[in-house]
Amino acid sequence: MVFFVFCLNLLYHLTMKQDSTIRQNIPWFETDYQKKKDWQKRKSSHYVFHYFKNSLAEKDIKRIIAVQERSYKKILRILKLKNERKINYYLYPSKKTKQILMGDDGYGNAIWLEIKKRKVWVSKKFEVHSIYNNKIQCIGPHEDTHLLSLPWGVSIFLFSEGLAEFMDKKWCGKDIDIWARKYLKENKLYSIKFLLENKNWDKVNNMIVYPQSGSFVRYLINTYGMGKFKKAYKGTSRQKILKENIKIMEIIYLKPIEEMEKNWKKHLGVEY
Predict the structure, then answer these.
(1) What span, in angstroms and rounded, lies between the C-alpha atoms of 230 and 163?
(2) Per CATH, is 19-148 categorized as 3.15.10?
(3) Burial (CB count within 10 angstroms: exposed 0-12, middle 13-18, buried 19+), residue 197
(4) DSSP code of 132?
(5) Are 159 and 217 in contact (CB under 8 A)?
(6) How sure is the predictor about 14, in pLDDT bands with cuts at 50, 70 and 90?
(7) Which of 5, 11, 42, 249 has the fewest Cβ atoms surrounding its Cβ within 10 A?
(8) What is the pTM of this model?
């Protein structure tokens, strides 16, 4: 009993140690997209879509709206969150165009710039920037999850990207657990302890780390419940050192990190 009370006090101390303002680390971000005067616009219940005239996005806009509205409702339902802001959703016809206008040629970005703690965390921007063409169609719940989960704060990459992949369910057309099993068999998975350290994400292969994170988060949620995961998500932080984040996880799940990882791999049903 004494140990349990000690753990609760320690968890309170660790989770309360957060600044009231968190800024998004995106030094590459450009705002030239705001200067573009000829965006085509379409509003839906929870979005304002911006796209190029005569683009594939314009042709498919009804389908895009349907996909995003379903994703939006799913995210809020599963995470038991509320949101009153519309998401500004920018659709670019190519990687080059996206990089010129907003600074990055990645498939998709959630842009919030800065969040301040009031009753909950509130962001400065509420935008998604995605590529949409014949080869790349970056739509669905992933980027929206980053924005809609902001009331929980900004967690470590393992949990923020893992939660987004959990919502997406698939990576490059295949279930995230299928990818995790494949990489486990090939001995290519990263240790969970390694992924708990944000700076290590500069050294990872995205093809591996995204489905791995999603699979691990899915295991935590399905095994221990969304309530515990929410505590872990809100308790861990990019502002904390590795030792603090590990301690928070172990207090919440009452297991060492290594045991959680071992049990997740057993759950995947692969001999390793």
Answers:
(1) 10
(2) no
(3) middle
(4) B
(5) yes
(6) very low
(7) 5
(8) 0.90
By the 8 A CB rule, do 98 and 104 touch? yes
Structure tokens at 205: 């292969």
pLDDT digits 0-9 by tens, 100-139: 999 999 999 999 999 887 777 888 999 999 999 999 999 9
Contact 162, 216 (CB under 8 A): yes
Residue type, 62: K
pLDDT tens-digit series, residues 173-190: 999 999 999 999 999 999
Report which residue type is found at 89: Y
**Cα–Cα distance for residue pair 42/224, rounded to 1 Å:** 41
Q: Phi/psi at 57 (nearest 5 deg)?
A: -60, -40
Pairing between β-strand 47-51 and β-strand 87-92 as defined by DSSP bridges: parallel
In the chain, CATH 3.40.30 sits at: 19-148
The helix (run of H) or strand (run of E) holding residue 122 is strand 121-123
Which pair of structure tokens corresponds to residue 157? 């990459």
pLDDT of 10 > 70? The answer is no
Percentage of the chain with pLDDT > 70?
92
d(CA 162, CA 212): 8
Encode burial over 215-235: b for 16+ CB neighbours within 10 A, e otherwise: bbbbbbbeebeeebbbbbbbb
Tell me the three state secondary structure of residue 154.
coil
